């Protein structure tokens, strides 16, 4: 890792370096092979950051990483009987961010930062897939998009990488400012401004303000791509050299789509217009919202020198990520696994997708968190929306999901929808085999804290009635 010596890391994080022989030029000049907080991922010549988490204290693993060949440790208290150098700091998590920020400055690499209320992960996958047709790309893995995950992702950038595509997620003011300071993006993408994290951010205007902190440390010569169909984002005008590039379905955008034809669960056909090109694409992931993700990826592809053939191929190569609009064909039913997280906009988009499926349509819905004072009303809206979109069976689980159920029941009096309510996931799962039928298409959607991935696991195992 370029310039990642113990001396430089100590300076970067304001720590005190102990145990390095000042006369040993070789030891002082040695660059770390990796920097990790998971002791299982340490490699020979790596640096381990010992941090105290909710369940385990990383300091207890210091002897183990020394045996595994670590060249040094960053820690909050003096280790006992240690034979390798260590950097003593007040806060290991702050040190992680400081060290990642220092490492980012050493890298000659294009960094793309992606934020927004909905679609960050899918947009990241589209952009990474397109750019990988021409470049060696590193992308955020899993949910590594916060103040721990993002610095770890930056620290995983290797010499071989030419582009890093980083997902940047927040829930409060100031977080994006800190993430931007670490990532220093050359290109920023804002997908949309929806109703999420309202508990801390208050309103969509507050969400826009918080997410706009992504511009605080971006390259002033860089580019910003924004969803031009979003009524909040059209007001975005960062202080950089280039005007924002707007993408969307409207023809007034810099890059837009026409001839959008849904193929239901099998994706969407569209024609892309922009950067003096017009060409058709087949989008493999289902849902009209994937068109916006495609447009962002296509625009960045053109900006970074790809041609329409490479972009088309990259879009076709995109794979679904577990828990995010992942269509699973099981032996007895089809499951739309969209359980990773939820807010009103993403739940409605998922219901839109379910409504295009053939046969009986089933929505298994749970609580949406961090919605603030309007949480009950926003859940009620989902209940009404699901009935209006023609969903046949609506199964609700969770205390807030009772609002989905009650409003849905009111709406269903004049329709054919059937609703079920359970106080929690544990009580709901055993009842599913008596509600669901073979050939059903089943949407699973809730906030991450509801652990609805266990519902998806159960659906893969149960036997359904005819």
Structure, described:
With 466 residues, this protein is of the alpha/beta class. Helices cover 32% and strands 20% of the residues. It contains 17 helices and 20 strands. The chain has helices spanning 6-13, 25-29, 62-67, 92-106, 120-131, 149-155, 175-183, 198-201, 204-211, 289-303, 308-316, 344-355, 375-388, 401-412, 425-428, 432-435, 453-459, and strands spanning 16-18, 35-36, 47-49, 72-75, 86-88, 110-115, 137-139, 163-167, 187-190, 223-227, 245-248, 255-262, 268-274, 277-283, 326-329, 334-337, 361-366, 393-397, 418-422, 441-445. A nine-stranded mixed β-sheet has the order 7-8-6-9-10-11-12-13-14, with helices on both faces. The longest helix has 15 residues, at 92-106.
Spatial gap, N to C terminus: 58 Å
Which spans of ≥5 residues are poorly predicted at pLDDT below 50?
Answer: none
Counted beta strands: 20
Strand content of the residues, in percent? 15-25%
Radius of gyration: 24 Å
Q: Structural class, from helix and strand content?
A: alpha/beta
Helix content: 25-40%
């Amino acid at each position: 890792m370029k310039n990642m010596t113990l001396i430089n890391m100590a300076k970067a994080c304001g720590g005190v370096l102990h145990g390095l022989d000042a006369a040993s030029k070789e030891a002082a000049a040695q660059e770390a092979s990796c920097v990790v907080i998971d002791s299982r991922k340490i490699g020979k010549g790596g640096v381990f950051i010992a941090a105290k988490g909710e369940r385990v204290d990383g300091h207890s693993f210091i002897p183990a990483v020394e045996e595994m060949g670590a060249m040094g440790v960053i820690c909050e208290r003096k280790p006992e009987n240690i034979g390798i150098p260590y950097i003593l700091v007040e806060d290991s998590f702050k040190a992680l961010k400081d060290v990642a920020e220092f490492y980012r400055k050493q890298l000659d690499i294009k960094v793309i930062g992606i934020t927004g209320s909905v679609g960050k992960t899918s947009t990241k996958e589209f952009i990474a897939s397109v750019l990988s047709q021409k470049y060696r790309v590193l992308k955020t893995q899993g949910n590594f998009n916060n103040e721990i995950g993002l610095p770890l992702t930056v620290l995983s950038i290797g010499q071989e990488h030419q582009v890093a595509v980083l997902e940047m997620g927040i829930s409060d003011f100031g977080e994006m400012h800190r993430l931007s300071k670490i990532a220093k993006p050359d290109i920023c993408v804002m997908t949309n401004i929806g109703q999420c994290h309202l508990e801390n951010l208050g309103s969509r205007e507050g969400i826009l303000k918080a997410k706009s902190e992504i511009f605080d440390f971006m390259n002033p010569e860089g580019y910003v791509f924004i969803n031009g169909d979003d009524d909040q984002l059209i007001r975005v005008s960062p202080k950089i050299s280039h005007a924002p590039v707007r993408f969307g379905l409207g023809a007034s955008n810099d890059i837009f789509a026409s001839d959008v034809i849904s193929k239901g669960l099998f994706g969407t056909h569209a024609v892309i217009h922009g950067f003096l090109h017009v060409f058709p694409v087949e989008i493999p992931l289902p849902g009209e919202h994937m068109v916006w993700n495609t447009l962002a990826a296509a625009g960045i592809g053109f900006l970074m020198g790809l041609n329409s053939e490479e972009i088309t191929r990259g879009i076709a190569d995109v794979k679904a990520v577990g828990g995010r609009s992942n269509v699973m064909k099981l032996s007895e039913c089809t499951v739309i696994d969209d359980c990773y997280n939820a807010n009103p906009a993403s739940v409605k988009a998922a219901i839109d997708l379910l409504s295009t499926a053939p046969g009986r349509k089933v929505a298994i819905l749970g609580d949406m968190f961090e919605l603030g004072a309007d949480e009950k009303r926003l859940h009620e809206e989902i209940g009404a929306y699901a009935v209006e979109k023609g969903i046949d069976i609506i199964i609700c689980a969770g205390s807030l999901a009772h609002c989905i159920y009650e409003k849905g029941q009111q709406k269903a009096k004049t329709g054919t929808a059937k609703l079920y309510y359970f106080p929690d996931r544990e009580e709901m799962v055993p009842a599913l085999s008596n509600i669901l039928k073979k050939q059903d298409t089943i949407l699973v959607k809730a906030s991450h804290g509801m652990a609805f991935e266990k519902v998806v696991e159960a659906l893969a195992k149960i036997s359904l009635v005819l």
